[in-house]
Amino acid sequence: MWKTATRSTVLCLLALAAVGTPPAHAQETAPGAGMRDPLAGRWKLNRALSDDPAEQLRAMGMPEGAPRARPGQGGPPPSSRGRGAFAALRANVDGFEIERTDSTVSIAYPDHQLRLFTDGRKQKIEGANGREVEYRARWAEGKLLLERRLDGGLLLSEEYIIQPGTGRLHVLTRLEGDRLPMPVAFVRVYDPADGQPEEQGGPTRD
C-alpha cells in the first residue's frame, strides 16, 4: 500500500511539473477572476497634493518652453525644439480613464485615446501636431511604465503607481535629455473620479 501511495504522489508531482506555473509577467499583468484592477477607472487630478513642474523650471533659470542648449550644441533654437516637450508636461493632466487587458493598456483623455501594447515594444502614434511620437509601455512590479520620445532628443517617462493606504494614483514623471541642464522630475497625484480615496491623509514620497 505504501508503494502504491508513493507511486501516486510521484505521478501527481510529475503532472504538476509538466503543467508548470504561469510566467511572472503574465501573473502581474492579468488581474485574477473577480478581482478589481486598481489602475482601471477614471482619475481626477488632486492639485493640492501634486507638484508643479514650472517651479523646477524657474529654479533652473529657464523660461517655460525654452530649454537651453549646452555649449557647442547645434541644431534649431532650443526654444523651438523644447516648446513641444514642456507642452507635453502640462497636456492632459486634469484627468483620464484607464482600461487594461492582458496585453494592452488604454488611457482615454478628454480629446483622444491612447492604446498601447504593454510588452515593451516600440510603437509610433501620430500626435496632435501631426508628428509621430514613439511610445513604449510595460509592467514592472505592479507599476505601469510609459515612455515617450519627443522632439529634440527628449525622453518623457511616467510611472503609474497606486499608493498603498490611500488608494490614490501617483504618476511619477521625469523629463530628460541633452538639451536640459538637468532632469525635471515631479509627481502628480490623482483621486478616483467615482469615489473618495480610502484615507484623506497626504501621500508619502519615500
Describe the structure.
The protein is 21% helix and 33% strand. It is globular, with a radius of gyration of 22 Å. The relative contact order is 0.17. It is of the alpha+beta class and 206 residues long. It has helices at 2-19, 24-29, 53-59, 78-90, and strands spanning 41-45, 95-100, 104-108, 113-117, 123-126, 132-140, 143-150, 154-162, 169-176, 184-192. It has a single domain (26-192), classed as Beta Barrel (Lipocalin). It contains four helices and ten strands. The protein has a ten-stranded antiparallel sheet.
Kindly summarize this structure in a few lines.
This protein has 206 residues and is of the alpha+beta class. 21% of the residues lie in helices and 33% in strands. It has a single domain (26-192), classed as Beta Barrel (Lipocalin).
Measured by DSSP, the beta-strand proportion falls in 25-35%
At the third CATH level, what is the topology name?
Lipocalin
CATH class: Mainly Beta
Q: Look at the structure and give the mean pLDDT.
A: 75
- Reading side by side through the largest sheet, how are the strands ordered? 4-3-2-1-10-9-8-7-6-5
H-E order: HHEHHEEEEEEEEE
Which sheet architecture does the biggest sheet show?
10 strands, antiparallel
Spatial shape: globular
Number of helices: 4
Quantity of strands, as a count: 10
List segments where confidence is low: pLDDT < 50 over at least 5 consecutive residues. 1-7, 9-27, 74-82, 199-206
Distance between the termini: 59 Å
Q: How does the helix and strand content classify structurally?
A: alpha+beta
- Which architecture name does CATH use? Beta Barrel
CATH superfamily: Calycin beta-barrel core domain
Q: Return the domain count.
A: 1
Helix residue percentage: 10-25%
- Gyration radius, rounded: 22 Å
